[in-house]
Amino acid sequence: MEVKNKIILALDVNTMESAMKIAGKVSDYINTIKIGYPLALAEGLESITQIKEEFDCNVIADFKVADIPETNSKIADLTFNAGADAVIVHGFVGNDSVEACLESAEDHGKDVFLLTEMSHPGASRFLKGVSEDIAAMGVEMGIKNYVAPATKLDRLEKIRNIVGNDSFIISPGVGAQGGDAAKTLRFADAVIVGRSIYLAEDPENVVKSIIDGIKL
Ligand code: C5P
Fold it and tell me: What quaternary structure, including any partners, is listed in this protein's UniProt entry (predicted)?
């Protein structure tokens, strides 16, 4: 996926109105938007379709899909049919569940991002212990797209070493959760930024300063 300026906007707002407004303010700099449960549950899968139509951007659906294979298939099909270019899938559920999403992605000509480890402190208790194994499973399955945390650079580096330099890693946790974009991009291909953009008085300015910080 070609991510302009290496920044993905996490559009975790509750209304289509504010989603459109914020995306509009940064659309000169951002071509990839992550839509997760807040917007999709508030406004439906139609939110994916509308954002894609309005901004002609990449849409990554962050549904952290984590069910049995048969249900995962249905979730992935619905997500891709709504227009998403990629879906984020949990790895801890095992290879058969992930495979179901990969098959759906292949049928639709879309992508799967495998979530290895999460960015919040609580992830240390369970996910940290298995995240390297999840990344290794992804490699065995031929997956090329991964999610790994910007808040734990040592973990991000470990996951990069496992998935290799030809894989594409997107990394959440920059800004509000404390991660730094430039440092994260030493190991990741793009950063995911939510609150520090969509809660800002001037989202465009925040995006510009992230871009400047990356160039330093
Ligand atoms: O607001 P903030 O910049 O912290 O947003 C981070 C985004 O990345 C949120 O949408 C969150 O759900 C998502 N995310 C994460 N950690 C992961 C995967 C996704 O924080 N491992």
Answer: Homodimer.
The closest-lying atom of ligand 1 relative to the alpha carbon of residue 193 is 3
Alpha helix ranges (H) inside the chain: 16-26, 37-43, 46-55, 69-81, 95-108, 127-140, 153-163, 181-184, 195-198, 203-215
Sequence letter at residue 122:
G
CA distance 94 to 76: 16
What rounded mean pLDDT belongs to the chain? 97
Q: Using alpha carbons, select from 155, 157, 159, 152 the residue that is nearest to residue 134.
A: 159
Q: Which CATH architecture has domain 4-112+170-215?
A: Alpha-Beta Barrel (3.20)
Ligand 1 within 6 A of CB of 12: yes
Cα–Cα–Cα angle for 190, 82, 118, rounded to 5 degrees: 35
**Is 33 near ligand 1, meaning CB less than 6 Å away?**
no
pLDDT in tens, 1-60: 999 999 999 999 999 999 999 999 999 999 999 999 999 999 999 999 999 999 999 999
The CA 172 to ligand 1 mean position distance, Å, reads: 5
Per the CB < 8 A criterion, the answer to whether 150 and 188 are in contact is yes
ipTM score assigned to the predicted complex: 0.93
pLDDT digits (tens, 9 = 90+) for 140-150: 999 999 999 99
